[in-house]
Queue: 2 jobs
Job 1
Amino acid sequence: MPKTRVLVTGITGFLGPYAAAALRARGCDVVTAARSGGDAPVDLTAPGMVAAVLEALAPDFVLHLAAMARLADCEQDPGRAARTNARLPGELAERLGDRLLHVSTDLVFDGRGAPYDEGAAAAPLSVYGCSKAEGEERALRHGGRVVRLPLLFGPDARGRGASASLRHALGQGRPVALFTNEYRTPLHAADAARGLAELVPLRAGPRLVHLPGPERCSRWEFGRRLCAAHGLGAALLQPCECQDPQRPRDVSLAGAFPARRSLEQMLADA
C-alpha cells in the first residue's frame, strides 16, 4: 500500500523541519516547498504556481505552513502580506478542499477575551493578524481545515522561535527586554508538529482547531523559567510593559486538543 504523500509548504521556516520529521515518523511520504529550498523551491503566490506544484508533486494532503510572519514586514508591505497570508490559503483550499490543513495564529484575536476557544470570533489588531484571519476565512469557505497555533519555541540552529532567539541573545551577552503584560500559551515546536501530523489526515475531524500550550504565561515569566530550566543567568532579562496597540495583551488559547507535556518538560527540551 503506498504511503500517504504530504506536501509541507514553508519547509525552511522554524516549524517546517519539525513538521516534516513528525509526518515521517508517522510513515508519511513528505515532499516540501519553500521560496528557496525544498523539493519545489518556488514562490507559491506567483500566478499559476499552486496548480503547477500540486500537479508535479501530487500530494494526498497539504500542510500549509508558509506565511509572512513578521509583524513589521506585514506593516511595511500589506500587499505582499495579503497575497501570502490571505489569498494563497484560499487558492490552495479551492483546489484541495479538506485535504488542506492550513496553519494560523493566536494573533487573529485582540487580546480582550482570553482564553480563546475555537468558537471565539477573530478580531485582529495588526496587518499580520488581519491577513491571517482572512486566510482562515478563505480556507474554510472552500472546504479547507485550519489550525491555530500559539507562540512556538524549541531548538533552532538559526536562532528562531521564542527560546532559541532568547538563548542566542543571552549567549552574546545582550540584554533582553521581555513583556510582563503580554500573555500567550507557549508550545514546543515538536509538540505542535506532532499535533499537526495527527490532524493532517483527519478529514472528518473539526474544521477549526486550536493547539494551545499547557500554560498561560507572560513573555517575562517564560524567559525566567527558560533560564531556570537550563541554568542560564537571568540578570540580562529586563522586564518591561508592551505599549504597542497592534500587539494584543492576552491571546492565550483553549481548545479540545490539550498539550500532552507540561511546560517544564517542554522547556527542558528547549
Job 2
Amino acid sequence: MINGKRVVVVMPAFNAAETLEATVRELPDAVDECILVDDQSSDGTVEVAHRLGLTVEVHEINRGYGGNQKTCYARALAAGADIVVMIHPDYQYSPLLVMSLAGMVAYGEYDIALGSRTLLGGARRGGMPFYKYLSNRALTHFQNLLTGAHLSEYHTGFRSFSREVLETVPYANNSEDFVFDNQILAQAIFAGARFGEISCPTRYFPEASSINFSRSCVYGLGVLKTSLQFRLAKWGWFRSSIFQFPARILERAAQPISLADRR
C-alpha cells in the first residue's frame, strides 16, 4: 500500500516466459497484488507466473493487446485496487519505478502517471530504433495539437491509473489491438484527468516485445484516427463510441476540471 491506497500491478502478457521473472523480481514489496493476464502464449509464461506466485488469468482465445488490458483492468478493480499500475512483463521498463508512478496518483496530485521514454533522451539511449523514435515524436506532437495536452509521449507501456479513472472512461469500447493504449489516454484527457510524467529508462533487446514495421503503421493510423475523433467529439460534431461518456461528463468536458471535481 501507499498512503493507505491498495496498489495492484497488472501485466498483459504474451510469450513473456524469458523476461517475466526479471520483471517480477524488481517489483517493490509495497505492491499489494500482481495480476498477469495471459493471451494464449505458446511458451511457458503461465507456468512461470504461477511459480512466481502471481494471480493469473488465461484467455481462452487470443484477444490481442487491447483485449488483454481490458481484462487486466477489470480484474484489478474486482481485486479492490485503488491504484492500478500497468507494466509490460518484457523487462523493457524498470519495475523499480512502480511505486514512484503509483505515488503520484496515491497522494492525489494526478489521476494518471506515465513512465515516459522520451523525457531526458532515455529512448534513444535505451536502443529505441530511430524510425520508432521519429514516429513517436511526430505522433505525439500531432496528438498534443489536437487534444490540447502537453505530454512528452502517448505510447509508453508503463502507466498508473486511479480507480476513478478506470471506472469513468469507457475503455470497454476501445480497440482490442495496440491502439487501445492511445484511446484510453485520449478518453482520460477528454474527461479532464490530471496527468503526470516521470522519466523512465527503457531497454531494447531481442527478448523485449516490439511490433514490426507494418503493425507500427497500422498503429500510427489508429493514433491519427483517435486524435481526430477526440477533436470532433470536443467540438460536438461527432462522438464515436470511445467517447460515449455519461451526460454529467459530456456537459463539462470542455472545462479543465479534474475527475475529482466530477463526483
